[in-house]
């Protein structure tokens, strides 16, 4: 029975059903809630330009980002982890018009050689060169939570694309017992999308380790400001530990 349960959980049908339900849930939350968008003026000049940019957000704030797709005509790509959970989320956001790049963000020790990193990097650089937006979770897929890794900075360095940090929050939510305390927005909420600006310029090619780490910390700080501001706007304490 145990092995049968595992096979069911790994089946393509169950994965497809989970993706469909996630997509429906995102729409339910958005349509039953009132969302304000704050700081979008930081995105306007990037959206008006011909060059692409990187949109970063914490993994815990992944859920509602897909609905912001409607705010731009630019192509939007999302880096999705190659493991099964990533595939389920990927198929959920595809319905919102988001193209997918499967792989993992950069681990400087692995140099993009594992988990599809090299092909994913090449695809992201190409998409940015064509003027697209590439979404990344700098702390995903395994954490530590809200600690930016160098992958997003390396992508900016190699592509020349700036990084823009964003976050959402809702007045009603559950914090799941996952590695990142995933923020599960609930329907009938007051919500906020926050863009923390200005955009962070890409480091120059060949920048030394100290410069890359300084940009990494800048990205981390911008992401925290966006998440904390979104929480305050909907009446939550920043990164609230409470549930509900």
Looking across the biggest beta sheet, what order are the strands in? 1-9-6-2-5-3-4
From the N-terminal CA to the C-terminal CA, the straight-line distance is: 35 Å
How many DSSP E strands?
A: 9
Q: What share of the residues lie within helices?
A: 25-40%
Explain what the structure shows.
- This protein has a single domain, classed as Glycerol-3-phosphate (1)-acyltransferase (3-Layer(aba) Sandwich), CATH 3.40.1130.
- It has helices at residues 2-9, 12-31, 44-48, 84-94, 117-129, 151-159, 209-233, and strands spanning 34-38, 53-56, 76-80, 99-102, 133-136, 163-170, 173-175, 183-185, 190-200.
- The protein is globular, with a radius of gyration of 17 Å.
- The strands form two sheets. Strands 1-9-6-2-5-3-4 form a seven-stranded mixed β-sheet, with helices on both faces.
- Helix 2 packs across helix 4 (84-94).
- The chain has 244 residues and is α/β, with parallel strands linked by helices.
- The N and C termini lie far apart (35 Å).
- A hairpin with a 7-residue loop joins strand 7 (173-175) and strand 8.
- Mean pLDDT is 87; it is low at 1-9 and 106-115.
């Amino acid at each position: 029975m145990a092995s049968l349960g595992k096979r069911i959980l790994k089946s393509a049908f169950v994965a497809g059903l989970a993706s469909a339900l996630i997509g429906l849930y995102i729409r339910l939350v958005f349509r039953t809630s009132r969302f304000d968008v704050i700081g979008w003026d930081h995105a306007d000049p990037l959206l008006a330009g011909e060059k692409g940019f990187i949109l970063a957000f914490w993994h815990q704030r992944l859920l509602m980002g897909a609905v912001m797709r409607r705010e731009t005509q630019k192509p939007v790509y999302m880096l999705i982890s190659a493991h099964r959970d990533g595939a389920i989320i990927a198929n959920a956001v595809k319905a919102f018009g988001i193209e997918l790049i499967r792989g993992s963000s950069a681990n400087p020790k692995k140099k993009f050689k594992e988990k599809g990193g090299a092909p994913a990097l090449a695809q992201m650089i190409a998409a940015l060169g064509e003027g697209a937006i590439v979404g990344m979770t700098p702390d995903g897929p395994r954490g530590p939570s809200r600690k930016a890794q160098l992958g997003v900075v390396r992508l900016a360095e190699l592509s020349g694309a700036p990084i823009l940090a964003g976050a959402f929050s809702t007045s009603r939510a559950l914090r799941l017992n996952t590695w990142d305390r995933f923020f599960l927005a609930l329907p009938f909420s007051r919500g906020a999308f926050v863009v923390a600006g200005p955009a962070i310029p890409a480091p120059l090619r060949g920048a030394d380790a100290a410069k890359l780490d300084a940009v990494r910390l800048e990205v981390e700080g911008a992401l925290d400001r966006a998440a904390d501001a979104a929480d305050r706007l909907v009446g939550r304490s920043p990164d609230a530990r409470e549930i509900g």
